[in-house]
Fold this sequence. Notes:
By secondary structure, the protein is an alpha/beta fold. It has 15 helices and eleven strands. The longest helix is centred in the last third of the chain and has 19 residues.
Amino acid sequence: MVQIGNIKLSPFPLLLAPMEDVSDPPFRALCKEGGADVVYTEFISSEGLIRDAAKSIQKLDIYEKERPVGIQIFGANLDSMLRSVEIVEATKPDIIDINFGCPVKKVVCKGAGAGILKDIPKMVKLTESMVKRTSLPITVKTRLGWDHDSVKIVEVAERLQDVGCAAISIHGRTRAQMYKGDADWTLIAKVKNNSRMHIPIFGNGDVNTPERALLMRDEYGLDGAMIGRASIGNPWFFRQVKHFLDSGAHLPSPNIKERVEITRRHLEMSVAWKGEAQGVLETRRHYTNYFKGFENFKPYRTRMVTSNHSEQVFEVLNEVLEEYASQEVL
């Protein structure tokens, strides 16, 4: 059994990674139904929270059916981060996660996200201060280092653990790599296999097949997998991974009826949460994967991603269901 603070999880839990404009309540709900053990919100700016920015505040929305759920915040100013903890606590999440891994320039240039990897003492101090500020478990998501020449993840993980960090998720790339090249899990395994470490170490990066998750568990010995891009438009991926880990066999892909129903529910929940225009817009990124493997689907997908009203998308979905009802997924 893996444990984050007092939260008890399965022996090899699967975590939904925090992803900007992806890990919102509708998608988290679908991933939870699809087998995710822990889900995380989109990353939230501490500066936005303390200034009551509408977009940041909206991201605090969490629901009972999501639990255990973590709220992830980012920032470089200690006072702002500590004040944001109090705001986050009020929404009663199960976990507060600190983003020390986002490689995006607009975040990094402010010394936040992966930018703090240039200042490890500050990274440790910020984590320690947040641990002392709240009774909720504080976890960290980070990368191997700023670049190849500054990788000190084994030492960094020790120091984060020593100041009270309850778990660490490590993306197997440096900030300099962004999302290019292959994730290096060997360095994550070095953190896990360090005799001084006793908190859970989760691997992130390139967990895109059930076989890769099995490799992470059995060859690299990690405590769990954090899954990001592979889940986009594919919330059943968690269930498929779990089935493979348990049996060594692949679950059949969802049929067209199931895919249409999930797409419909996703859009309905998005519209209910964000409003018609934003809900329709932000669900578009999932359509390609929802219907991956169906021949000659492009015309339908084009209509779905260019429709500005949910009713238009629902009409296309009805046509899809009728057209592909007898077609197997390739």
